[in-house]
Amino acid sequence: MPGALLLLLAAICVLGGNAFAETRTFSLPQAVEYALANNGELKALRAEMEVARAGLERAVLFPNPTLELEGGTGSLTGSTDENTVSIGLSQEFLTGGKRAKRRTVAERETEAVHHQIADRERLLTLEVKSTFYELTLAQKRRELARRAIDLNGKLLEITRERLAAGDIPELEVNLARVEVARSEGRKIEAERVLNPLLARLKTLLGIPAEDEASFDGTPERRPLAITPDELTRLALENRPDLKNLDATRAKGDAEVELAEAERLPNVTVGFGYTYERSGLEVGDIEARDKDHLLGLKISIPLPVFDRNQAGIREARARKQSAESRLEFARTSVAREIEGDYARLAAAEKSLDLYTTGILPQLEENLKLVQEAYQLGEVGILSVIEEQKKYIEVHDGYLAALADRQTALARLEASVGIDFQNKISGGAQ
Predict the structure, then answer these.
(1) Rounded to an integer, what distance in angstroms lies between the CA atom of residue 278 and that of residue 85?
(2) Per residue in 223-235, pLDDT tens?
(3) Residue 40 domain boundaries
(4) Residue 89: DSSP 8-state
């Protein structure tokens, strides 16, 4: 009995904790903002910025000096009066402006990493928006399935009333039951895709698996009054991937200059002090001597075999590769924007057809057919067909709305700008 009581209390605690867990609801802007702050991959990429900063710090450091200590004794060889002690300090000096050139390379590397992070933020924003629109579409389709259940449920009630009055055969009641069952199946199908999309969106946002979250809100539809040429210009100015490639190209230039400077050998200058004690015996005469010596040493490697030919060739190859990638990316921007702009324009036209002509007429047609069936002027098949058309057309409208929003998000990613927030007047 005490064990059962403990199990009951534990179950109450678990259920109570789940029951009172707060579910946070995200709008689209909130979801994007949260993802940019908490996405795991983005956090890892930001950590690499510290690596680049450490490289910049290392590039400006001077070489460490070298301390040399040396001692010698003749005690082990029978010359007890022979002893030597020396101490030296040497310093390597960089030639050809290598330190400044290394700093330039490190600065370009840091700049490239910064733009890599910005580009990942751009792509992550597109992923979050696209997934958010997919989830919204699935939610709206579930609502549409519930609407279909309501319509067919009311139709079933009407058929039962008319059957009781002797106006219709039982077959029509059975047909109405079939439509209700089909609507239930449609609802189950709509709910089937919700959980995977919700899990994917929570992963993109970096929300822990045990935390509850919901997503709601339909972004306001605003016309985009800006030409493809202007969009291309904005993209060339704002795309972080282009800025990353440009920084990589600049880094290639700096690496070539550094590699050419590496042909010049560095100079090492050393200073030393030596104390020597010696003794000499000639017959009965013994002489001892003590010397204090100061020395200067200069070391210069001779570039006879290795003049950094391989390093210069490698740096030039990387520079050429970066220039080619940047040129290709810039020429691809116009085509990418042209395709995304055309996709958005087609989605706008499709959506306008639904909102201005099809949906209002569809509502009116369904209402008229339902009233006519109640009056016995049309058969049940006409009502079923009109309700099917109503659901299918609304489903097409929801898909067109999601396509329009996704096309806009793709165009925003192609340009590298959030039209709703960063273009004053252009997207109003």
Answers:
(1) 12
(2) 777 888 899 999 9
(3) 28-61+94-266+301-422
(4) E
Give the DSSP H/E element, type plus range, for residue 275: strand 267-282
**Number of domains, the chain:** 1
Q: Which tokens in the block code for residue 215? A: 């997503």
Q: Residue 257: which of 214, 210, 308 has the closest Cα?
A: 308
Taking residues 393-416, report their average pLDDT. 92
Percent of the chain scoring above 70 in pLDDT: 89
Is 376 a domain residue?
A: yes
pLDDT at position 285 is 60
| Structural domain contains residue 21 | no
Three-state DSSP at 86 gives: strand
Section 125-148 average pLDDT: 92
pLDDT of the residue at 428: 30
- Report yes or no on 169 lying in a domain: yes
Q: Let me know if residue 124 belongs to a domain.
A: yes
Contacts of 160 (CB under 8 A, 6+ apart): 173
How far are the Cα atoms of 70, 81, 114 from residue 53, in angstroms, in the given order? 39, 56, 11
387: exposed, middle or buried (Cβ count in 10 Å: 0-12, 13-18, 19+): buried
**Structure tokens of 346?**
């087609």
Phi-psi region of 321 (alpha: psi -120 to 50; beta: other; left: phi over 0): alpha
> Among 8, 32, 9, 34, which Cα is nearest to 211's?
34
What CATH number does the domain containing 48 carry?
Answer: 1.20.1600.10
